[in-house]
Specification:
Length: 376
């Protein structure tokens, strides 16, 4: 009942976010049910390797939906500070607030999973036909009995991942949001710089060694270590780019761009790192399949790639919307003091160009490593 009272205050943007989360969850649940249907249609003495492989193919989409749910849950206190302030005034503490936001995302994911299950059962019972001549029978598992426990377990993964990601993304300090205009600049720690420099180098060494000795498993491990380091390096590189812009005796445009990028490096670094790694891996996988004529990407692979791309872009746009609000709050005093519009626009352009250069460098590095790892 408490959640229903809170839901009465939803705006159009909240309902759209809730609906999109349900749609993305329905797609992931459909992929999981398809893997289950294939496993049911396979004869009993069949090996477990192909079934496990089909489930592993669903993990990127599941992780993408969980990442999107976490980004949207963390953005809600910043987009609706009056709602959070009212809940805090009513006695809702930080822990209960995090549970409320996590429950909201988990409920959206659960609704999407239930919609996918309903469609799966309708297609399985042939009450609804999409493709003629029973071309979906193998994917629907019509040749065997559907295990109830396995179905519930697979579908429970979607709201579980979404709720846990939302609870982990919302920090206690986010319950009482601020506009971010006076956020202090966080300097990179020695430990973070060492990890950002050491992990890519160590992972690259593993990939190069694995390529020489033809060890695919070692190449995959090396690529994972290297890309983790690249993801950790993106905020550090953003901070360094902002420091370079503000180096020496800069003019107002460069000073605003550099200091603004330094202040936003940690909040902007995570979605840009995910975008760089996901984009690089997707581009390399596409080129690998394009260079092999007898291997063609099926519709399910394209659907999963589109879902991952949309989730990553949705999380990035959400973070950019948060930072845009911080920009307006920070630039307000400058406008009232009569700062030229060209100076403010030029600082935004410089900051965007510097961030784009960091994304391009990180994506290129991750792409080269992925190409080397996949060539083994």
């Amino acid at each position: 009942m408490f959640y229903l009272r809170v839901a009465r205050g939803y705006r159009a943007l909240d309902l759209l976010r809730w609906t999109l989360t349900s749609v993305a969850s329905a797609v992931v649940a459909a992929l999981l049910l398809r893997a289950l249907g294939r496993a049911v249609s396979t004869p009993a003495p069949a090996p477990a390797g192909p079934a496990l492989g089909r489930l592993l193919w669903c993990l990127p989409a599941l992780a993408a939906v969980a990442y999107l749910a976490g980004a949207w849950a963390r953005a809600l206190p910043l987009q609706q500070p009056e709602r959070m302030t009212g809940l805090v005034a009513a006695g809702v503490g930080p822990l209960r607030m995090r549970l409320l936001l996590a429950g909201e995302m988990a409920l959206a994911c659960a609704c999407g999973a239930l919609v996918a299950l309903a469609g799966f059962l309708l297609l399985r019972a042939h009450l609804l036909e999409i493709l003629p001549d029973g071309r979906l029978d193998d994917a629907l598992g019509t040749h065997g009995s559907l295990p109830v426990a396995g179905t519930i377990t697979l579908l429970a993964l979607v709201p579980l991942f979404g709720g846990v990601a939302a609870a982990a993304a919302v920090r206690p300090s986010d319950v009482i949001p601020v506009d971010g205009s006076d956020e202090p600049q966080r300097r990179p720690t020695v430990r973070r710089v060492a990890l950002a420099a050491g992990l890519p180098a160590f992972g690259t060494l593993i990939v190069v060694t694995a390529v020489r000795v033809n060890a695919p498993e070692a190449a995959a491990v090396g690529w994972f270590v290297a890309t983790t380091g690249i993801a950790l390096a993106v905020p550090v590189l953003l901070y360094g780019a902002g420091h370079s812009l503000a180096w020496g005796r800069p003019r107002a445009t460069r000073l605003l761009a550099g200091r603004g990028l330094q202040a936003q490096a940690w909040r902007l670094g995570t979605p840009l790192a995910v975008l760089s790694v996901a984009g690089a891996l997707g581009a390399v996988a596409w080129l690998q399949y394009a260079d092999t004529p007898h291997r063609r990407l099926g519709p399910l692979a394209l659907i999963e790639a589109a879902l991952v791309a949309l989730c990553v872009l949705g999380a990035l746009l959400t973070r950019l919307a948060e930072l845009a609000g911080a920009h307006r709050a920070a630039y307000g005093p400058l406008r009232r003091m009569g700062a030229p519009t060209s100076v403010l626009q030029g600082s935004v352009a410089l900051r965007t160009a510097a961030a784009g250069a960091v994304v391009l460098a990180a994506g290129t590095g991750a792409g080269l490593l992925a190409a080397a790892a996949l060539s083994v």
